[in-house]
Amino acid sequence: VLSHNLCTVLNVPHDPVALEEHFRDDDEGPVSNQGYMPYLNKFILEKVQGNFDKVEFNRMCWTLCAKKNLPKSLLLISDEDAFKVWVIFNFLSEDKYPLIIVPEEIEYFLKKLTEAMGAGWQQEQFDHYKIALNTSREGLSAWELIDLIGSGQFSKGMDRQTVSMAINEVFNELILDVLKQGYMLKKGHKRKNWTERWFVLKPNIISYYVSEDLRDKKGDIMLDGNCCVEALPDKDGKKCLFLIKCLDKSFEISASDKKKKQEWIQAIQTTVNLLRGGHPPPHKEARQKRKELRQKLLAEQEELERQMKELQTANENKQKELETVRKQLEAAAARAAEEEKKRLQTQVELQDRFSLELEREKMVRQKMEEQVAQKSSELEQYLQRVRELEEMYKQLQEALEDEKQARQDEETVRKLQARLLEEESAKRAELEKWHLQQQQTIQMTEAEKQELENQRLIKERALQVAMQQLEQLELERKEALEQYEEVKKKLETAANNTKSWKDKVAHHEGLIRLIEPGSKNPHLITNWGPAAFTEAELEQRQKSWKGKKATSE
Prior knowledge:
It comes from Nothocercus julius. The protein is of the alpha+beta class and 553 residues long. It contains 13 helices and nine strands. It is 67% helix and 8% strand. About 1% of the residues have low confidence.
């Protein structure tokens, strides 16, 4: 069952016949020729191609060992979080069996967790823990690390959900190679609509899903050294736009704000630069550098220990030589007691000489001890310098990021200024064109104004002539009215006379009627009553008016 499950997880074809052939003889143990370890190496592990789900493989290994080794004490983290801590331990542990995680890697992991939780790093507390750890062992096992995280010693004041989210974030970065993730809007290639997607950036691919549970995957953006990312201006009501250009396709994406837009552009550009240079992800490269630094420090410490051993061996040899000389002196004194007095001076001289040598050896030993102490102090200073260099490296990275941001802002401002200058030049040309048109219009208006002024003067003169003619006609009308009144009075007088004459004739002559002459021409009617002139007089006056008008024009 174990072999079949391993083959399934590792995408290796299972061969039950080989399994039966291998275990045909009596089993003499798991590492014997017929044991399980040789079968595992030969028929399973040697066939692995690397195209398998490492998380599922880790989960299977966790299932095999967790129940037996997981601490029985009450942990503040769930079993899923314990599994993720176990996988992180396998990534950060040393490459020797039994697996342990050294204090430097423990500090790195705890710093990552603290940063993900949004808390401050307690260096003094970890230094005390590190001192207590170094006095008893070289590092922690996987289960001791789980117990350390689950005890809440370095996450006091944080709830379980915050610790779980921090573990998940560190797991995504270190194990799943997730460099950045978050919600953004993506423009479709066919329907051209904008849809919210959960984007996950990895060292060579950007995957986007319906939601952050990663269940419904909608597509991938394959990254390589030829890809590039650039910011876009706001359009179609969308803001914070940027474009990812690949060889076969381009993707328009809208971030939630300018900060997220800049973070995504910088993260994608950093990933493309790593692909161009053939470098591993940042956390893997940092782990390799920490490992090389530890190996270098270990080699220096071993060299220092070797020198100490050589000094100790030389000192022991000198002690042995002194002991041999002392025994020889004692033997010579026993054999030649009669020559005691003669050789006394020689013995005193020898003792003085060897005392001087002893003093010299003591001084040499003291100097060696001082050198060892000095080397230890230099080693501590070197370690402190290494930590300072790491901090300086982080500051340089931040300064480089700020400089990149400043350059991008400067480039954006420069482009904006160039565009404003172009718009200003276009507007200036347009204004000059309008000015010329206005000058031409003003000249034409002046000419038209002059012509209208001449026409006005002509019309004024005609109006004055017409007014004079009107006044003349008014005078003539008044004269005609006066003549009409006089004629009317004469007619009334004549009518009265005629009436009295008729009465008299009727009274004296009875029914006799006189025959009265009638009007020869029809009467003309004006606005003021019957006209006082005939049609012939009217035609004569019209001819006179027309002649005067022609003369005035």
